[in-house]
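Reopening this ticket.

The earlier resolution said the output was attached, but the attachment link was broken on my side. Pasting everything inline this time so it's all in one place.
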Amino acid sequence: MDMDNRPLSAQIEDALKIVAKRKSAELRAERKMKRIFRSLYLRQSGSVAEREAKAGTDPLYEKAEDEFVDAADRSNLAKAHADALQIKFEEWRTENATRRAEMNLR
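Inline output:
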């Protein structure tokens, strides 16, 4: 259970800021991976398929690809956390609306 005692709105705001930063890191990692692939591809000789295969199996490219996947994973997890907080907020809001409606019926 989340032990953050701050208001949900503050938690959601912080979570969304983290999502934005993680998404930016993911995009940077993707661009780096693509730049490495292009550089390796252009250094190779042979047919297009051979050049792609050589570039795609180079350890430098594989490392960049792993970093991109890790960054995407962190971005997705941060988004899931922010979404969960927003759902929690909507549940709270619905419960309060129901309570207010019940009080009006009395």
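Reporter confirms the inline version is readable. The helical segments are 8-43, 48-56, 59-105. The chain has three helices and no strands.
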